[in-house]
Specification:
496 residues; Arc Repressor Mutant, subunit A; eight-stranded mixed β-sheet; 41% helix; three-stranded antiparallel β-sheet; single chain; Aspartate Aminotransferase, domain 2
């Protein structure tokens, strides 16, 4: 071991504006890391170091204490301080792929860290984890027209809300959501969807997907059966399976979910997930007779119905249909709605309306898992709804999207008659068009993507049984000219 008198510590001059303690710490640490003070070397006594550099011994003691706490030096009373034999940087350095590693590091076995069974299922997401590129390519599905959103109005509301904000708005919010916003949503669904409720039944969330996950965790035990439309929403399937549910795919026809089939094959299910307003992805609403049968099944079996009403407000033929929840007299329907489809995706604000007896456990679980949404954003949305802007925006978009739905139908009949059959579009942001029975819709969707056209194959929604080959085409976000050009490009891809 080297003696203290053999060590020469050359320190750079102290820069102006840097404290003596910071300068000495940085210089000693640099000397250790560069090897000028080698591992195991004994450091000069703090008194000697202070005298040599004309600084107080208290400053030197503070620097030694910091270096010791970080693992650069070690020492014992009566023996002095030494440079640590193993420096902390060795454990903090990350080796980049392709870089040479020390032989010992290469040979050291590493413990395998695996996901849980639930984690494995949760990691099989149906969604992109990266943000989707903008501007969108025709015919991206499930997308409202972002250019038509009144952004200037929203910005004014945001600025006004910020000026009026009180200190209380900076504190924790309610797990259930911002009270005035919940009251405004309750009033909106009463008039627009026929649902009798109050703000006390409304729970704010970041997405309907979060609602499905929360419902599955609170209402299902592993092995419980859950009905899901087939074809149906893959996000619901994966969330239910991650909770341990046994997903039962229920056939869909021109009247929506076949409730009688589900009652015969899995009457003991605990949950039924349904898109009653506009079946995703096929399009038809759930017929009244089946709505009543579904409600009767839930009442007699003590089950819950999850109604995902994601875009049926945009109905082009007559008034929007009343929600399934509007017929619920016994409290067996949880209604889910989202502003990501009504306004813009980045808003990430949704809600669910739950029966009285479930409010307390759901709010408590939400507090445990995610606390609450951003209060400021909720307050802006409240003003947007309360001042009537939401209703006006929906009415404008209903007319605009209706024109675009007709344009898509006209263009497909003109350019792809016989190759792609599109039924009349009654509602929504997108529609399913059907290919010939022997077509491979995944291959065709890939071919369309090569031509710059974004579609989604109907087989993407398949659960158990075969799905008619087809493409889901979004039309709401694209102008009439863009739709015409997109159909022409799609026709080239299909006929090449």
């Amino acid at each position: 071991m080297r003696r203290a008198k053999d060590i020469e510590i050359a320190l750079a001059p102290k820069p102006e504006g840097v404290s003596l303690q910071r300068w000495l710490y940085e210089e000693l640490r640099k000397a250790i890391l560069t090897g000028r003070l080698s591992p195991g070397s004994r450091l000069p006594a703090t008194r000697d170091l202070a005298a040599r550099f004309l600084i107080s011994r208290g400053t030197v003691l503070s620097v030694f204490a910091q270096l010791s706490a970080e693992g650069y030096i070690a020492g014992t009373v009566g023996r002095g301080s030494y440079v640590a034999a193993e420096l902390p940087e060795r454990h903090l350095t990350v080796s980049l792929p392709g870089k040479d590693m020390r032989p010992a590091a290469r040979q050291r076995p590493e413990a395998h860290i695996g996901l849980s069974l639930r984690g494995e299922k949760l990691s099989r997401t149906a969604f992109q984890v990266e943000g989707r590129a903008t501007p969108a390519r025709t015919f991206r599905a499930s997308l409202p027209d972002l250019e038509a959103f009144p952004l200037a109005l929203w910005s004014r509301l945001t600025a006004r809300r910020s000026r009026r904000s009180r200190t209380a708005m900076l504190a924790d919010g309610e797990a259930q959501g911002y009270g005035p916003l919940r009251d405004a949503i309750a009033e909106y669904v009463r008039s627009a969807r026929g649902i009798a409720c109050s703000g006390a039944n409304v729970i704010m969330l970041s997405s309907v997907q979060q609602a499905i996950d929360l419902i599955a965790r609170l209402l299902l035990d592993p092995g419980d059966a859950a009905w899901l439309e087939d074809p149906g929403y893959p996000g619901a399937k994966l969330a239910l399976e991650a909770a341990g549910a046994r997903v039962v795919g229920v056939p869909v026809d021109a009247e929506g979910m076949d409730v009688n089939w589900a009652c015969r094959h899995a009457p003991d299910a605990r949950i039924a997930y349904v898109t009653a307003g506009r079946q995703a992805p096929m399009g038809p609403p759930l017929a009244l007779e089946r709505r009543l049968a579904l409600l009767e099944w839930a009442r007699t079996h003590g089950a819950m119905i999850v109604e995902d009403d994601y875009d049926s407000e945009y109905r082009f033929v007559g008034r929007p249909l009343a929600a399934l929840k509007s017929l619920d007299q016994s409290g067996h329907v949880i209604y889910c709605g989202t502003f990501s489809k009504l306004l813009f995706p980045a808003l990430r604000t949704a809600y669910m309306i739950v029966p009285d007896r479930l409010v307390t456990p759901f709010v408590a679980a939400l507090s445990l898992t995610s606390r609450h949404l951003a209060v400021h954003q909720q307050s802006i949305l409240h003003e947007f709804i309360a001042e009537g802007h939401l209703g006006r925006h929906i009415r404008r978009m209903r007319l605009l999207y209706g024109e675009r739905a007709q344009a898509l139908k006209y263009s497909l009949d003109k350019h792809l008659n016989g190759l792609l059959d599109l039924p009349v579009i009654a509602a929504g942001l997108d529609a399913s068009a059907f290919l010939s029975p022997k077509a491979d819709d995944r291959l065709i969707a890939q071919r369309a993507a090569s031509a710059g056209i974004e579609t989604r194959p109907l087989s993407f929604y398949r659960l158990e049984r075969p799905v008619p080959p087809g493409l889901v085409l979004g039309f709401a976000a694209f102008g009439v000219d863009d739709i015409e050009q997109g159909v022409v490009a799609l026709a080239r891809a299909l006929t090449s």
